[in-house]
Each structure stands twice: as structure tokens, then as C-alpha cells.
Amino acid sequence: MPCHIIIILFHYISYCKHITFSQNLQQLPKFFWLFFKKHTSTPSLKNLLLQRSTRLNNEYLITQAILTATSMKLPNIYILLICLFTSFTRFIIETTAFNLTLPHQHPDPEAVAEDVKRRVNASLSRRHLLSIQEKGQCQTGNPIDDCWKCDSNWANNRQRLADCAIGFGQGSLGGRGGQIYVVTDSSDQDPANPKPGTLRYGVIQDQPLWIIFSSNMVIKLKHELIFNSYKTIDGRGANVHITGNGCITLQYISHIIIHNIHVHHCKPSGNTNIAASPTHVGWRGRSDGDGISIFGAQKIWIDHCSLSYCTDGLIDAIMGSTGITISNNHFTHHDEVMLLGHDDKYALDTGMQVTIAFNHFGQGLVQRMPRCRRGYIHVVNNDFTAWEMYAIGGSANPTINSQGNRYTAPTDDNAKEVTKRVDTNEGDWAGWNWRTDGDIMVNGAFFVPSGAGLSAQYSKASSVEPKSAGLIQQLTLNAGVFGDPRDDSGSISTPGFSGGGTSSTTNTGVQGSGSSGGDGDYFGMIFGSGAPRPASTSLIFLSLLTILILCTITNHVALESFPLLSL
């Protein structure tokens, strides 16, 4: 009997050796179907299994595998093994879905949030120690900018920027350690065979590159710009606009930094051949028209960009993307601003971790700032000037940690709520971990917390409370491309949109779980979202051990008498 089990497991490991653990589990039905189909002989017990199949998770392929197994001359232990795997597979997938498979996922997201707080406080402390004259010259309290901008020789040490990321995208190397590549040609004539000197030629190279620009330029893309790993786009010192068809695609790559560029008026395109590396040109279907599309990518940092007027999202991160920081950007004039998560049923997005910090969500925005599915999203020290429908939305139980933001509601009394649970009733979302801590609510804005965000457990934190709206203004003062004007009016002629009001109140959520804004200059937060931790791998081994033990015990017992089939 043990030999039979070893043979089956050996076949299964061979069948799935190139895919991840969670994908292995999801391949079980297909594997058993193929394995037993190969050994089909005479029937037995088919009627009994037909009657019980709906109790085995209603998985079509699993049922077919069991029926085929009973149609051949195999020991009952084979069928028992299938039934046990049927019972355990879904449970194991659910309990391990937090992401045992995504690379670059941080095992302790609260530690990342704590590090963001520490770095903001450290930057603010340095700012206090400086004289008023020195403050105006350099220190802002924004830890990213203070990390590199205070170096008067930054232009000769550009790669220092790679050390300045915070949050989940910290450690994004970009092109650090690689050569400097200078874009001298703004054209994009042949996406399948780009010319040296163009941006497209630089981003597809295999080696790390730190890409800068020789002068101000508008790069009108013919089709989507597909990046290779380990690239930095550094627009400092030039006024760079990327627009046109497709725009930026980061697909199945890692270690990308995009800094100080404009991305706007991006349109769908495709159905053509596009180079993705010096040695690979592939057919691409039609793109969505996102400004920046992050697809199955990790360690991505988007900083100090100005994004607007795209067909779909300004930034979308989907299909298991993680380790992302979106910071110091300026978003304007768009409907669906930011999507985090592919689909409610896409389990790998449970491991997504994104930090959204020091951004200015400005004029003419409607919704999705962001709209989250699954994952852990840290929204910290952003300025939301206004929105038309809602600011932060989500479905499929994402953890949303909102700290030290300023939310300015529109004048529409029906759109004051910051949050929106999309296509979900309260009975389902009441347990989701959404919290507000130290957020400033303006013009009647209010945040509806849920889950652990309503718990008194956060009151035990003793940190100094976040700075009020004055600090948010300072931290987001330079959001977007350096030198671009900041517009805080919150009003635009877009139909149905009007700006924020003038009254300011502190709101910690409908049921008062957060802390109010204080007068201190430190960014103090309360931590401990209560999000479930990844299931221990010992549970997996325990499940497999249980299967082996039960198989041994029941080796000489008729399958018809086994309890699983008599439920």
C-alpha cells in the first residue's frame, strides 16, 4: 500500500514540478483525471459514487477522476486517496491563500508600516533640528525627498535614489549598479525593432540600466512600452512626457523604478508584434490604455510622476503583483484612478502588498483611489482633494490601513463617504479589516471602518498622534513631477464634480476606532490590523500525514463502509 501512495505522489510531483505550491493544489483534479484515465479497466462502485459526488465539493474533474478510478481494477486505497485529497484540497488552498507563492512578499506587513512611520518621524526630527533658513533650502519632512534631494551633487550620484524607497516597494533596485543610458531620440517608429537612443531600446535591454534624458521631450508611443527587469526611468533634470498608444507595461518582471515623468492620454492599442527584449519579439493583443500597467510584477516603485487622462486606469496592479510603492505622485482628471487586484476570485492577489504614500489626488477624479481586491494596502499621508463617487473602495476582503491622510469631500451630500464596499452587502464586509487612524476629514468626509478597525485593541498603542492638515500639505507639497504647479482648489468644470469645502474636522470613522489629529509634529500611528497571518506550513504536512495514517488503517476495510461515502 505505501508503494502505491509513493507512486501516485511521484507522478504528481513530476506532473507539477514547474509550478508553484498553490497551483499544484489547484492542479490535483486534472492530475487525478489524467492518471486514472490512463489505467482504465472494468467498472465497480460507480453508482455509489454518482450518488455522493455532489458532496465532494462539486468539482467536475474530481468527480470524473473518482468515477474513472472505480471503473478499473485498482486497490480501494487509490479511490480513498482521491476522496481524502478532495476533502483536504480546498481547505488547504483557502488556509494558505495569503500567499506562500508570491516572490518578494513581506512576511510581516505591519513591520513595513512601522518602518514608514519611523522614517517619517526621523525626517521630521531632522527638520526640527535645522534652522528656519535651512528648512527652506532642503528638509521637508518627506523621507523620500530628504533622502536624496539634500545632496547638492545628486545629478552626479543619481543612483542614490534607489536607496530612498519606503514601504513595500523598498528594495526595488531599478537599474542600480548598471550603466547610464541616455535617451536622445523621442521617436517610436518601430516597436518590434527599436533604434538605439530611443526609450524603447533602453527599457528592453537585459542588463540593468539607469535611463535618463538628454533634454525635454514628448515621447508619443506607437504601441505599449514593454519593460525588461532592472530598469530605472529617471526624469530629473528634464521635462519628459510619455503619451500615445498603450503606454507603460510591467509584465512578469521585477525591480523597476519610474521617477519624475508625466504619463497622460494613453489609449488602447495592440494586435501587433512588439519587442520585449533584444532577443524576443512577440505578438501582443489589445492593451487597455492604462497609464502604467503592473501585471504579475514585483518590486516596483513609482515616484514623483504626474498621471492623467488615460482610457482605463492611471495605475493598475493585477495578477499577483506585489512589493509595490506608489509615492509622491499627482493624479488628476480621470475616472478609475487605480486598481489593485485582478478579480475577486483570483487568489494570488491575496499576497499583494502595496504602499500608497505622499500622493496628491487632485482635480477631476471620480473613484478608485485605489479600488482594492484582496491584499494588504497601506494608504499613508496622502492628500485627497476631492472625488465624485468615493475615494477608497474594495471587494474580496482586502486589508486597508488608512493613516494620516487628509480627505476632502465634494459638496455633493451623497458622496461624502470616503469608502465603498463594491457589490458586497454589510453582512459580508463587516469582518473586513479597514481602519482609519489619524486621518483628517474635511467638508463632511467620513470613513466607515470595519473588522479589527473597530476593535479597542488599537487603543493600547501609545505613539504620538499624527500631525493635522498642515503636515499633509508639507509632505505632499512637491507631489508629481518636480516644478509642476500644485492646484488645491478641488474644482473643475467636469460635469457632476465640485470641489471641497473649507471647514475641517477630525473624523476617526463612524464608530470611532481611530485617533484624532493632534498638534504634534510627529507622525504617530496605531498598528496591528488584525489581518490573518499565513497558515503554518505544518498544517499542510499534518494533512498529508493524516491521509497516510488513514490509508494504512483502512487498507483492509471495504471502501463502501468508509464514512466519507456515507455522509
TrEMBL record:
Keywords: Calcium, Cell wall, Lyase, Membrane, Metal-binding, Secreted, Signal, Transmembrane, Transmembrane helix. Pathway: Glycan metabolism; pectin degradation; 2-dehydro-3-deoxy-D-gluconate from pectin: step 2/5. It holds the Pfam family Pectate_lyase_4. InterPro entries: AmbAllergen, Pec_lyase, Pectin_lyas_fold, Pectin_lyase_fold/virulence, PEL. The keyword Membrane applies. The chain crosses the membrane at residues 539-559. Its cofactor is Ca(2+). Its EC number is 4.2.2.2. It is an enzyme of class 4 (lyase). Residues 216-413 form the Pectate lyase domain. GO terms for molecular function: metal ion binding; pectate lyase activity. GO terms for biological process: pectin catabolic process. SUPFAM superfamilies: Pectin lyase-like. Binds 1 Ca(2+) ion. Required for its activity. Residues 488-514 are annotated as: Disordered. It catalyses: Eliminative cleavage of (1->4)-alpha-D-galacturonan to give oligosaccharides with 4-deoxy-alpha-D-galact-4-enuronosyl groups at their non-reducing ends. It is found in: Secreted, Cell wall. PANTHER family: PECTATE LYASE (PTHR31683:SF11), PECTATE LYASE 18-RELATED (PTHR31683). Belongs to the polysaccharide lyase 1 family. This is Pectate lyase. It comes from Populus davidiana. The lineage of its organism: Eukaryota, Viridiplantae, Streptophyta, Embryophyta, Tracheophyta.
